[in-house]
């Protein structure tokens, strides 16, 4: 019987995670922001457009604590919320 193992032919090359992959919040550093966002979603029938401020605050928390890469808020789609303006429009 031959159980030859060819370890030398190919070696594993580690690579960084794909964009969008980030460490879990094991210590709950941003748990309050996540809970606030989830409550907003539940209260608004999971219409995420109505919870953009909460989403922005959660991502800011993650970036501040190095749980995800620093990205400009404009690049994450929150450019309109930086000055405190909201994208949600009210109809007359």
From TrEMBL:
Q: Which residues form the CHCH domain?
A: 30-64
Q: Which PROSITE patterns match?
A: CHCH
Please list where the region (Disordered) is annotated.
Answer: 1-23
Pfam families hit by this protein: CHCH
Per its UniProt record, what InterPro entries does this chain match? Answer: CHCH, COX19, Cys_alpha_HP_mot_SF
Q: Which PANTHER family match?
A: CYTOCHROME C OXIDASE ASSEMBLY PROTEIN COX19
Q: What is this protein called?
A: Cytochrome c oxidase assembly protein COX19
From which source organism is this entry? Vicugna pacos
């Amino acid at each position: 019987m031959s159980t030859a193992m060819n370890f030398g032919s190919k070696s594993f090359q580690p690579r960084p995670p794909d964009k969008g992959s980030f460490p879990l919040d094991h210590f709950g550093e941003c748990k309050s922001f996540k809970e606030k966002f989830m409550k907003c979603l539940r209260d608004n029938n999971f219409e995420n457009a109505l919870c953009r401020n909460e989403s922005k605050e959660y991502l800011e928390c993650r970036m501040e604590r190095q749980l995800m890469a620093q990205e400009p808020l404009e690049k994450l789609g929150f450019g309109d919320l930086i000055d405190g303006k909201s994208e949600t429009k009210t109809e007359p």
